[in-house]
Structure formats: C-alpha cells, structure tokens
Amino acid sequence: MKLYNIRVNGKTFAVSVEDADGVTSAPSVSAAAAVSSAPLTQTAPAGAVVTSPMAGAVRSLMVKAGDRVNSGDLLLTLAVSNEESEIIAPVNGIVSSVCVKVGASVNTGDSLLVF
Question: What's the whole-model pTM score?
C-alpha cells in the first residue's frame, strides 16, 4: 500500500493506493478526509478579466454591466468557423463592464468582460 497526500482547493486529503497482483487499484479517500458535497465556488476579485480563449466574432451577449453571475452561467457566445463556442463564467461575481459588442471580432486573449 502506498500513501499519498493530495491537495485540492487548499485542503489536504490522505489517499491510499493498494497494489493487487501488480495492478494498482483506484485510490480511495479515507473517511476522515471525505470531501463535502457542497459545491466549491469562488468569487471573482474586482477587476478580474474574462478573456477570449480563441479568435472569433461575438454572436450574442447574455450579460450587461451590473449583472450578478454564478460560476457556470453563460456569458456570451463566439462564432468560430461556422460553429458557436460558449463562454462560461469561471467564478461568481458582478459584471463591472462588458468590453465587446455583438458582431465584434476578437482575438485570443482579448478582454471580453470585467468583474
């Protein structure tokens, strides 16, 4: 048996892995280190910027300045090579400003919105 300490979101968990006839089984987390079933969420710090992961054109905007968003909410869609790519809120926060308009072309790394 091999013991490992694994850190997830700042919390350390003790994990043991057993070797069974040369095949390593899936790791198991000790009961003392069980993960809470509550969803992990973070709040965006003021001034945090959401940038474009790819070049494309802004197809639609789902938020405006002052909107409160939750992690996982749809912020906008980009048209990329006749396909749509959804830009999702990475964290909870309040949108401070939107840096693009529908129809605008964006490049990888361009600012889309600010929390």
Answer: 0.61
